[in-house]
Specification:
alpha/beta; Rossmann fold; five-stranded mixed β-sheet; binds adenosine-5'-diphosphate; 19% strand
Length: 511
């Protein structure tokens, strides 16, 4: 296997003496060099084709309006693979100005390539020494020249791309070597070298992506079929897995957010639905309590009605007398009016309590609301022989809430206390209290002197349908809890140390 012109000449000269009868496979030999050798017997190989015309074509592609070509390389007689370029100069460079730096010392080359005219390009055929006794590979020289050059450099082999060449029609050593290897295998398999025609390997347009960026050359400027090498990987190519992981994470996150938004939407719908149901159930519960309270309500109405009747009869009798005392009749009429208003107030309260209203929070004074509820209950309490007390905190207790529903909680708790004490012979007492708790909440308690709640039931009294009464529905406390939760508060039951149950709830204070 002879690589290059020198090796092939050497092998042919000494073959008869050293390796008689051994066939020779060559590579990296230009067609013009092979011609010069005549037609040696038992020899085959890979001939390359790489013309100066190709190099000029590449120069025109990377330098629009090219008018000057700069030749850089060792003197043509010391060249091997590109020696034939020297002969091609007149034909290939027709119409162009040629700056010929061939055979110059490295220092001179570097000086000259630093100040080349605008529309010029360098064609590099290989420098192997600095001309002052230092020798190095052509790629090393190439780097030194590229460092100084102010114009792009056209090269003839793939290996020179990385050294700083912008590109050109290039030979690819690895592929040429592989072709030569295949020829050698055919010979080892029994074919005669002399019968295998040499493989012709034509230079292909290859370009250096980094230099293209530097000289502002785009892929569309290049000859058809050009391969672009040394392309810097894009961010995505370089951090492929990381990028994919980031994208996947973002994607998942977006999906999760969408899912949560959807969930929140569903939850809001469900909450609205639950509030509606609660309002309906609460309405049923209010009707039930009103039913339980109906006898005392009737009593409360009967009282003013009775005194209206008595007053009317008195006034009638007075009018029948000779000298009716008009001033007294006036007072009697005023009494009738007051009693009528009292009865009207009972009906108004009952009506507002029984209206079916959706949950509506507004600024209210809790003391006032609870006071009204206790008034509503007072008749029932005296009918059942129960002492009902209310101790409110001084001043107003401003909270945001639904007055009807909060009154309903109080009513449910007080009626439960009254029920619990039904079996007591005496000492039936219910005490309601409101007090400021810290600065941000208010605590309301309803305590009684009844039997209390068995400790194992304390946790269950708020469960829906938990009841220990014959006629009980077991929804009063469950509704009370739902109402308090809807007001962002909490409610619980406990037994007092001195006996009796106490129900407490806490609500947030308004602004
Ligand atoms: P109901 O009054 O229809 O039974 P509630 O939910 O209002 O439904 O009450 C549930 C149960 O809690 C009652 O049956 C009773 O056993 C218990 N309870 C409620 N309040 C008291 C109280 N003040 N003292 C003792 N037990 C009580």
């Amino acid at each position: 296997m002879a690589n290059g012109e020198g090796a092939l000449e050497h092998a042919l000269r000494w073959r008869e003496e050293l390796w008689p009868g051994v066939p020779v496979v060559f590579a990296m030999l230009d067609a013009t060099q092979l011609e010069k050798l005549g037609q040696p017997a038992d020899v085959t190989g890979v001939v390359t084709k790489n013309s100066l015309t190709g190099a000029i074509k590449a120069a025109r592609a990377v330098m629009p309006g090219l008018d000057t070509i700069v030749l850089v390389g060792d003197s043509w007689d010391r060249q091997a693979l590109f020696r034939h370029w020297g002969m091609e100069i007149p034909a290939a460079t027709a119409g162009l100005t040629v700056i010929d730096l061939v055979g110059q010392k490295m220092s001179e080359i570097r000086k000259r390539v630093a100040e080349l005219p605008e529309r010029s390009a360098i064609v590099y055929s290989g420098v192997f020494s600095d001309g002052e006794g230092t020798y190095y590979p052509a790629a090393t020289a190439m780097e030194m020249i590229a460092e100084a050059a102010n114009r792009p450099i056209i090269v003839g082999t793939e290996a020179l791309l990385a050294a700083g060449g912008i590109g050109g029609y290039g030979l690819i050593a690895a592929e040429i070597g592989a072709d030569a290897g295949r020829l050698a295998l055919r010979i080892l398999d029994g074919e005669q070298a002399g019968e295998i025609a040499p493989v012709v390997w034509e230079a292909r347009p290859l370009f250096n992506w980094k230099q293209m960026q530097r000289w502002n050359v785009s892929a569309s400027d290049l000859p058809e079929g050009s391969e672009i090498r040394l392309r810097e990987p894009t961010f995505f190519e370089r951090y492929r897995w990381q990028s994919m992981a980031i994208f996947a994470t973002l994607f998942l996150q977006a999906g999760l957010i969408a899912f949560l938004l959807h969930e929140r939407h569903l939850r809001r719908d469900a909450e609205a639905e639950a509030r509606k149901r609660m309002s309906e159930l609460a309405h049923v519960n209010r009707q039930t309590t009103a039913g339980e309270l109906s006898s005392s309500i009737a009593h409360e109405l009967n009282q003013p009605l009775g005194s209206i009747l008595a007053n009317a009869e008195t006034a009638e009798m007075m009018l029948k007398s000779e000298n009716p005392d008009l001033a007294e009749i006036g007072e009697i009429l005023a009494d009738i009016k007051r009693d009528d208003q009292r009865a009207g107030e009972v009906i108004r309260r009952l009506r507002s309590y029984l209206t079916r209203t959706p949950f509506e929070a507004k600024e209210i004074d809790l003391n006032l609301i609870i006071g009204e509820a206790f008034k509503f209950l007072s008749m029932q309490a005296s009918a059942r022989n129960i002492a009902l007390y209310l101790q409110t905190s001084p001043g107003e207790l401003r909270i945001r809430g639904d007055p009807v529903q909060l009154q309903q909680v109080i009513l449910n708790l007080v009626v439960n206390s009254m029920d619990a004490m039904a079996g007591l012979p005496y000492g039936r007492t219910v005490i309601g209290r409101t007090e400021l708790n810290g600065g941000s909440t208010v605590e309301i308690s309803i305590s009684d002197s009844g039997p209390g709640i068995p400790p194992d039931k304390l946790a269950h009294v708020f469960d829906p349908f938990f009841t220990t009464k014959h006629q009980g529905m077991g929804i009063g406390l469950s509704i009370a809890r739902t109402i308090i939760l809807a007001h962002k508060g909490r409610i619980w039951a406990e037994n007092q140390t001195g006996g009796g149950a106490a129900f407490r709830f806490i609500l947030p204070l308004g602004a």
